[in-house]
Design goal:
This protein is α+β, with helices and mostly antiparallel strands. Among the domains are: 116 residues, no CATH class; 186 residues, Glucose Permease (Domain IIA); 189 residues. The chain is built from 19 helices and 25 strands. The chain has a 23-stranded mixed beta sheet that branches. Strands 4-9 form a two-stranded antiparallel sheet. α3 crosses α6, α10 crosses α11 and α12 packs parallel to α14. It is globular. The two termini are 25 Å apart.
Length: 733
């Protein structure tokens, strides 16, 4: 075990910092440390917040709550907020001690109760409900006792400093610049008010914490605050004294609805703005209620709006937008990049082509002829030759057509659900409207049905109940049913009868034949008019990317005049993915599908040998043939590092939310006539208009003999920038 660096805190105190970060929806210690410092704007309040957090966590530990729950930060963050409230509102030592001890236990009780009831049944996050309820209870208790006994228990509290109050008290005769400064002051005060802080440096630290946590969250906070202010300006009356209270709720709603609990997007942004419109009257109404009852409702508008939005979005279709994330992400940028990269595969079934050879999609999704309404997601496929012709000679007879009699196979593993093989094939140009679906095979696979229609009469070779694998022949192409020319109608459907309404899907492991040559697509939406074929399996290249667990490659890296050695160590995850570690500093992760390599995680160090290798092999097809090209799309931070300065600046301001495409091509040559060794080469270029100049002019070349990776070269113009050569392999099985 490696020793802990001197600057690292013990695990428990790192967890405490995460409690502070959780208030801003960040699980990282650094934003938590900044927030913890911000709470020391008034040291007594900050200490009180930490004390209540430790008490809340300690009560849970004493009662043996699950460790995962306690470590999640929900107990600690609610304890911190309640302690800050107590420290800022109570000055009597006995009452302060009672509030800290009893209130912390109440927060612990409410957190556990909410998690086991509303959280478990309605799948709602606890947010800061425990803190809000405990605050209402203790503030109402103190105010009622003040009225009954004529004593002062709660000291006067305002979210604004005297300087800020004096500045903001000038509603008239402000220039445009002064109005902008006033709005900036209100926004900064709103950030500090989340933690009951007024000092300018505390508000600034909260803003920095939000920025270091996620630039997207900070951008959302600004947008949400601006939306709240716009709503206030539409009101026929002023809201003096409520700007900051409305502001910190607006900030929390913006980062909660806009990015923490939902996947960011246009609809998510629209929903967040609508929540701001509702939060203003809710906040003003609760403020009026609080003035009568003495209760302080603090962040209740935020909690109500977030819970209401999440409840409203439950029970929709799986792919409905805004998306409720199915996985846990540390930042909105990660969620956005993940859904942009995988959303088609998450929401659509991906299947292989049910045919061999090259076929043209003569009618795709939303086709103008018959693919409308409930049948909009069907494919009509016709076999073609190299010239794109559907028939051999005149096309007058059925046998002239390449699709007629062509083998039709199962596109996935499954069970045959239903077959029909009794409809005669139509002469060319005629259709059978009485039996429009003709002869067909329905295959049940993982909850859906795969429909293969217009098959040749008497060609079906499977029976209901028979298990089939991907590639199992099921029949031959025909011209039965509503089919004037031989073709295959292929669709995915939810119901198990012929002609049921169909569902959208993706094609996997296909080669698109077009004016740009052969283009490999691991996953693609079918396009009308496209000529596609299946990429063949490649048994030669796949083993090159299956190193032994613990294997290490030693590379000699030449960069300019510098020559050094680099080690790449390999290990496997529980999911079977391969992780490459460069000198124990940086990592890349990939998975092998049946026909290609998918890069799951790119290295963080731009331009390192491992980073260049990952760029070169991403989406590599194992069937390697000269001239085959493909495009890889980078998302998030992997893309931002390659952008020009303008796009990088936008990424700094709004987060890593952009993507970048780059093209690669396969080349094959023999190294020497004597040895006859086949060397596969990959050449990658970065012609994207937003790519940095020195990346746009650069190219990557990767050499892969059948003995394994040999050489990687990074060139720009006629200059070689970096060469990495494998010189040794250790730990090989």
């Amino acid at each position: 075990m490696e020793p802990r660096p001197w600057w690292r805190l013990p695990p428990f105190w790192e967890g405490v910092l995460r409690w502070y970060g959780t208030i801003l929806f960040s699980p990282r210690p650094l934003p938590g440390a900044l927030v913890a410092l911000a709470t020391l704007g008034n040291p007594d309040w900050g200490v009180c917040g930490l004390l209540c957090a430790l008490l809340t966590w300690g009560f849970g530990r004493f009662l043996e709550f699950p460790a995962v729950e306690l470590d999640s930060g929900i107990y600690g963050c609610n304890g911190i907020l309640f302690g800050l409230f107590v420290g800022s509102h109570f000055s009597s030592p006995p009452l302060l001690a009672l509030a800290c001890l009893g209130g912390s236990f109440l927060v612990c009780l409410l957190t556990r109760g909410f998690t086991n009831s509303v959280g478990a049944l309605l799948k709602l996050p606890a947010c800061s409900y425990p803190f809000v309820v405990a605050t209402i209870v203790f503030s109402a208790f103190a105010r009622s006792q003040e009225a009954a006994w004529g004593v002062e228990l709660i000291k006067p509290f305002s979210y604004q400093t005297s300087f800020l109050a004096a500045y903001l008290a000038r509603p008239f005769h402000l220039t445009a610049g002064e109005q902008a400064v006033r709005e900036l002051f209100w926004f900064g005060s709103s950030l500090g008010a989340i933690f009951f802080q007024k000092a300018g440096w505390s508000c600034l630290l909260v803003g920095i914490a939000l920025f270091t946590s996620s630039r997207a969250l900070l951008a959302l906070a600004v947008t949400g605050f601006a939306a709240m202010r716009a709503v206030c300006l539409l009101l026929p009356f002023a809201v003096p004294g409520q700007e900051v209270a409305l502001g910190f709720n607006a900030v929390l709603i913006a980062i909660g609805v806009g990015g923490a609990f939902l996947v960011p997007g246009r609809r998510t942004l629209g929903l967040m703005v609508l929540c701001q419109a509702v939060a203003v009257p809710v906040g003003l109404g609760l403020a009026a209620l609080g003035s009568r009852t003495g209760a302080e409702f603090t962040a209740l508008p935020f909690n109500l709006l977030v819970s209401g939005a999440l409840l409203m979005l439950q029970g929709r279709s799986f792919d409905a937008k805004p998306h409720l994330p199915a996985l846990a992400f540390t930042t909105p940028e990660e969620a956005f990049a993940h859904y942009r990269r995988y959303q088609d595969r998450m929401f659509l079934r991906a299947v292989a082509l049910p045919v061999f050879g090259s076929w043209q999609i003569v009618q795709g999704f939303d086709g103008p002829e018959t693919h409308q309404e409930q049948w909009r997601f069907g494919l009509d496929l016709a076999a073609v030759d190299e010239a794109g012709r559907r028939f051999r000679t005149t096309g007058v007879t059925l046998d002239d057509y390449y699709a007629f009699g062509a083998v039709i196979r199962s596109p996935a593993d499954g069970t045959v659900a239903e077959v029909w093989d009794q409809v005669p094939d139509n002469p060319v140009g005629e259709m059978n409207l009485k039996s429009p679906w003709g002869n067909y095979v329905l295959i049940y696979s993982a909850g859906i049905y795969l429909g293969l229609y217009h098959l040749k009469q008497g060609s079906v070779v499977v029976v209901p109940g028979q298990s089939v694998n991907f590639g199992t022949p099921v029949g031959r192409g025909g011209n039965s049913g509503r089919s004037a020319l031989p073709h295959l109608h292929f669709q995915i459907q939810a119901m198990g009868w012929a002609g049921a309404a169909n569902l959208p899907f993706l094609l996997t492991d296909t080669v698109l034949h077009g004016p740009d040559g052969e283009v490999f697509r691991p996953f693609s939406r079918p396009e009308s008019g496209a000529v596609v074929s299946e990429i063949e399996a490649g048994d030669e290249l796949r083993p090159l990317f299956l190193p032994a667990n613990g294997e290490t490659w030693r590379l000699r890296v030449t960069e300019g005049q510098e020559v050094r050695t680099v080690d790449w160590a390999f290990h496997y995850t529980l999911h079977g993915n391969v992780v490459m570690v460069e000198n124990r500093e940086d990592e890349a992760e990939y998975r092998l599908s049946t026909r290609s390599l998918e890069m799951v995680r790119f290295p963080r160090r731009t331009g390192s040998p491992l980073h260049l290798f990952a760029l070169a092999v991403a989406d590599l097809p194992f069937h390697f043939r000269e001239g085959l090209s493909w495009t890889t799309t980078l998302y998030g931070r992997s893309a931002s590092t390659l952008f020009r300065w303008k796009r990088r600046l936008l990424a700094v301001l709004f987060g890593d939310i952009f993507s970048l495409d780059y093209r690669k091509e396969c080349l094959e040559h023999r190294e020497d006539a004597a040895g006859g060794e086949t060397v596969y080469r990959i050449v990658a270029g970065f012609p994207h208009r937003h790519t940095r100049g020195w990346w746009k002019d650069a190219s990557l070349s990767l050499e892969l003999p059948l003995r394994g990776f040999r050489r990687l070269e990074w060139r720009r113009g006629g200059q070689t920038l970096l060469v990495a050569e494998r010189i040794a392999v250790e730990g090989q099985g």
